[in-house]
Amino acid sequence: MNAPRPNAPQGARARARIEVTAAIKDEARRQLAAEGAAKLSLRAVARELGMVSSALYRYFPSRDELLTALIIDAYDSLGAAAEAADAKAAGAVPAERWVAVCEAVRGWALAHPHEYALIYGSPVPGYSAPETTIPSAARVGLLLIGIVRDAYQRNGVARTPLPAELKPEAQRMAAALAPDLPPEAIASMIAAWAQLYGLVGFELFGQFNKVVEDREAFFRHAAARLAHEVGLVFS
Amino acid sequence: MNAPRPNAPQGARARARIEVTAAIKDEARRQLAAEGAAKLSLRAVARELGMVSSALYRYFPSRDELLTALIIDAYDSLGAAAEAADAKAAGAVPAERWVAVCEAVRGWALAHPHEYALIYGSPVPGYSAPETTIPSAARVGLLLIGIVRDAYQRNGVARTPLPAELKPEAQRMAAALAPDLPPEAIASMIAAWAQLYGLVGFELFGQFNKVVEDREAFFRHAAARLAHEVGLVFS
DNA sequence: CCAAAGCAAGAGCAGTGCTCTCTAATGTGG
DNA sequence: CCACATTAGAGAGCACTGCTCTTGCTTTGG
């Protein structure tokens, strides 16, 4: 008699499937956080879940597919953290929002080092991220573009002139990413975006050992300089 | 009668040892370049060399030790490439030497992606680089400091004032790395150093796919902006 | 109600890092 | 010059990995 409720799609089996899939990802994420991507073992995940390793292949066709799922989750987690930080700084001037987002990225990276390494470190060998990851991967970049856009619509942004050889490329990038913004701003914003991850990566991967001690202050200043480089002003 | 020549240290056995050690590293480097660090297999190296895997442990006590040797070599190779680029630009102004070194780093990274990933990507899981790597790892950084020093001794460098919270740290860094240079220059130089690797890493690890097309021009401009940020001027 | 599809389990293959034991070649001191 | 000690290599073996295939069992939809 009682028909399946709409939030119970396709009966108990399908529900079990999403639950098991989630459990696998959770356990995999635990191992990832504990030991790093290369030591993530399908067999160990299955063992911990009380199932046999071959059963796991019903849910993820290969180890790489599992990693892809974790990569997307990591991008989304980082993106959400960055967006939350931006929302919290909603009232501030764009330059301060920029710094807030940079600090959120750094904070997330320090809290999830192995997941950060998974998405921004060396790509897992022989593995190249599929198209599926693109939307999640783009979130932080889009957020930064949004901040620059807000600044531009308020007061405009300071423009550093581009060399002739870069003008066509900058115009192309602007047309593709933010046609309403000046190419100079887009070009410097993309450079700053990449440089942000240089700062975070160096701290995370130990390159700052015995070099930078007060990393929090160092990073805050560097992020502020990046904002300045993009043309944002602290009012 | 004929005593062992001085360039044949400790007889034939020791000589064979260095040769075999070198052969192992060479083959390992080949596999590293072909497949990446995680797929580097001791057994495959041994197989290729016509020896049995256990024999390899006479030369490297573990896979990690082999990787460490490769890491040091990679750092040295990169450092040599950077130094060569600097030497070639010896006559130019410091800002141009800076850009030349940056481009050399990028060029080396594009030519040796897996080795670059080995040293600047995520550290190999569970592995932390031992002290032995430090001197080789420092070469590019020291080179950049040298360029800033030359600029400072010629015309001085443009100084961007530091926020109060960063002053002590900047003074500490300057005292440790280059007591003869102003703290502002050292602080911005270290940030630029890290940011350089953000630019290279993003390009190498595919983050610029569908975003930046003319990467050469983009990078050159970004490197020039870094030089400017450090206080170097293109005269 | 019954065939079809989904699922878990087990065995098995080829590969890995690493250890241990044994033999043979190579050095070295008396 | 020879006995002893050191060292290189070989082979077997352990515990692990990703992945495949077959075999039954359970759920599901017509």
UniProtKB/TrEMBL annotation, chains A, B:
Biological source species: Streptomyces macrolidinus
Record-annotated HTH tetR-type domain positions: 18-78
Protein name per UniProt: TetR/AcrR family transcriptional regulator
Keywords: DNA-binding, Transcription, Transcription regulation
Keyword Transcription regulation: yes
Keyword Acyltransferase: no
PANTHER family: HTH-TYPE TRANSCRIPTIONAL REGULATOR RUTR, HTH-TYPE TRANSCRIPTIONAL REGULATOR RV1816
One Pfam family hit: TetR_N
Coiled-coil regions listed in the entry: none
Residue ranges of the annotated DNA-binding region, renumbered to this chain: 41-60
